[in-house]
Design a protein that fits this description.
alpha/beta; 10 helices; 6 strands
């Protein structure tokens, strides 16, 4: 294994305990528009971008008039009703601080938009530690397509063998695999080990990953 030089993080469910909130925001926004919504189905799709989640959960395209209305309202519901109370994943700040102090480049790759990214990182308490970011605005297709991981890789400019990703959904695992990046999964997003099959290792949360720092990332450079 090459010395790790960079780490690409997912945000929702990985650095911030926000997956349930996103699903509830979709349900509430749909209800206000008179659209039937299944929380369990939507919750299983969290981690995909709206380009995939909305058609799969609701049966119409994100770019349709109704899809745009739903997406906008969901964003407003999430930001006003849920975002202010969200908590960072255990150990998120401590893990990223150690990685940063050891000279690793830190990036995020998210299915969310660039506008949504900043408040999420702020709630996670890590916005000052992230050097590069790739969002839905940078790509044509969201996870589990590898586009956003490729976009992050192009920005950090490290050999792919020296990069690892950290995520919490099967879509993170699939995207990383398709991009040729080794991935560590965390359970704090609510997924089972079976759902996270394919990850190099599975940890409880960033705190657990920090407790196994040397075996995951190697000794400090």
């Amino acid at each position: 294994m090459s010395q790790v030089q960079a780490v690409i993080f997912d945000i929702d469910g990985t650095l911030l305990l926000s997956n349930d909130a996103h699903a509830r925001a979709y349900v509430e926004a749909a209800a206000e528009l008179g659209i039937k919504a299944d929380f369990t189905k939507i919750r299983c799709l969290i981690g995909k971008g709206g380009d995939k989640l909305i058609p799969e959960a609701f049966g119409f395209e994100q770019d349709s008039e109704l899809g745009k209305e739903l997406g906008q309202l969901k964003g407003e519901v999430f930001k006003t009703r849920y975002l202010p109370a969200l908590r960072p994943a255990p150990g998120a700040r401590l893990l990223l601080s150690r990685l940063h102090d050891n000279g690793l480049t830190l990036a995020v790759a998210t299915s969310g938009s660039k506008a949504d990214m900043a408040p999420l990182l702020e709630r996670a308490g890590v916005q000052d530690l992230i050097v590069e970011s790739a969002t839905a605005d940078d790509v044509d297709a969201s996870k589990p397509e590898p586009d956003v991981v490729h976009a992050a890789l192009s920005k950090i400019e490290c050999p792919i063998t020296s990069v690892v990703m950290v995520g919490d959904t099967p879509y993170d695992v699939e995207a990383a695999q398709h991009a040729g990046v080794r991935i560590f999964a965390v359970r704090c997003g609510g997924r089972t080990d079976d759902e996270l099959e394919g990850a190099a290792e599975i940890y409880d949360d960033p705190a657990d990953l920090l407790a196994h720092y040397d075996e995951a990332f190697g000794p400090p450079r």
